[in-house]
Give the backbone structure.
Amino acid sequence: MHRTLLACATALGLLVSSETRAEPSAPPIFCERYPTSATCLGGPASCDTCHDSTEPVDWNPYGEAVRKALGGPLSPSEFTLRLDLALGAIETADADGDGVSNRDEIQEGSLPGDPTSVPFEAVCPEDTTGMDYPICERSPRHILRKIHLDVCGRSPRWVEMEAFLEQSPEAQEAALHEALDVCLDSEHWLGKDGVLWQLAHPKVRPVAALKGSAVEVGPVPLANYDHDYQLYVWSQIDDHDARSVLTADFGVLRDDGPTRYYAATDTELEQECAFCLEPMQVERRVGNITSRWFLSYFVMFTPLPRAAASQAYRAYLGYDIARNEGLFPITVDQGFPVTEPADHDRSGVDAPGCATCHSTLDPLSYAFRNYTGLVSAPGYGRTQYIPDRLEQLWPDDTALHATPESGYLLAESYDNLVEWGQIAANSDAFAKAAVMDYWRLLVGRPPTADEGPEYESIWRRFQGEHDYSVERMLHDLVDTEAYGAI
Amino acid sequence: MRFEWSLALGLLALAACTGDLGSSPPDGRPPPGGGGDGGDDRGPDPDPTPVSPKATVKRKTGTQIGNDLAQALELGSDELCRELGQEPCAEVHAIALRGVSAYTAGVFEPLEVSTATSPIAVDRLVLSACQTRAWRDFESGDAPALFGDLRVTEGRLDPDAPEVEAVITELYRRALLRDPKATEQMHLRDLYRHIEATGATAPARDWAALSCFAVFTTLEAVFY
């Protein structure tokens, strides 16, 4: 109910700007002002933060208040400069008249423009003695059951629970972490189609009909996407560096019964792949975003692989451009030396309605310029790096040849996809997205405003003290009140 | 999803207060009209249910339900429910049971809400496993795993016998990892009386299956 503020802010930009171009700079400004708000923690804010309707555009009372505070008409740069002040000017007001200030509503995740939406104010009972078990408290018994179910895939046995409850509180805390360690090695967690494998589904986006493994060959076998799953799972276990999924120059194979993942040679990988040709050049590998499956499926025949870039952005950095998330417009107006999109492939993406997203997406996509999907050039196989791919495959399209290999990711410049992977893997967005995957999985929902500091502490420790080890991070996560309170 | 959480949270908190889902008076007598069978005189409304603002309740997946049933009822995973005797029910009903169908249907993440068939699918899994366990313990001649201590004569048992209490206790420990309350003991004994009153030919066996079903389909068992 409180997502994708961007669309709202974009529409606001349309209204207040003297131009017809939307203003994707608004959401970052909003979230810089309210960094710990539920609106900015659990994903982008929703259109209904400001709008009653986006088509045709109509504003709710909060959206109207923002428009009024901004004044207008404004140029994009004026909009950028004034938005923070405008938000601040109205934050103590109560735009929808529901008795809660705009700031408090944003902070708690209710809608400041909807009088029927107010912060949830559940209060813990003062006396829990009449209950079979106290609520509102962190419960070791509850946590033991949750760890077993979430990670091992089954409840504890009665004898296990009985033995646990007989221990001292200190011993119980230690036992919880021992149970977690045991469960992290369970088949339910790391086996094929286990929890980690399932976490990878939206990142890999498999299609059975296109699978080409040694034993499973679909009608149109493109690649063996099990390799993508295996690298992902490998990166999440045994204190491996989770960033490997975006930086590895090796593949991973799996033994079953019990499941074991191991780094493999190209020759070993080829044996599990149907109709495979030459592997990707080692120096051009960027983890799962240069895998055979990824390039086959997301690049396919396209000169400028925007689908590959947006999928990588969504899968590993948590930003879905289709939902107006993670926009860092590369424009002269924002202080960059160029204005994107340059529209090298003449797709019309520089039209005002498209440029909002493509000013981020296109410079994000240039890194894939020379990575080929299903078409190849003489001397190269499919899914390889071809230094002059566009020139070889589209020799007559000279405008297309101007497409650079360098671009911008998260407003940071890169020269090629290897650098792209490094920037992505070392970004806060990567750590936030990785921890968010597990927060959603284990807690069952995104963090609330109250849980924001706890969430931030965990992803920062994941980057630092835990050295990108998912298993170490999970020990932090099960200690949170969000996970353990009943 | 918020609705599902809120509902489950509220009901679990109610369970925390009363130990059951509000069918019996506090003195342990059966409710008017039988064990929650829709009688009109339900007495005054209970106090508002305290809702914990901190807890988040999740619904078990089909895999988790199946694993718990297999563990508690000492069944092999291949002995759990199969549709048409072939495909595992937890796989056939995967999406209804918080699962995915990534490779063929493009459903990469579990649905955020339950489906219309989710409760039926849970019932299907649990009833099949409970019937299998009851049949094994009563009919197969194999060493019983759960209901073997019941003294059964011509298909009937004495619901007030101490071994019935012990079986109910064991059932709760296996399913919910705790001992049953007195009211819960009483409800399951009443269940036997209801079953016997229907004229069932093997009420003890039927009770075994249905008491198992009742406990494994409580909110406390299905949510965590």
Strands of chain B lie at 82-83, 87-88. Chain B touches chain A at residues 1, 5, 13, 15-17, 19, 50-58, 60, 63-64, 67-68, 71-72, 100, 102-104, 106, 108-109, 173-174, 177, 181, 224 (CB under 8 Å).
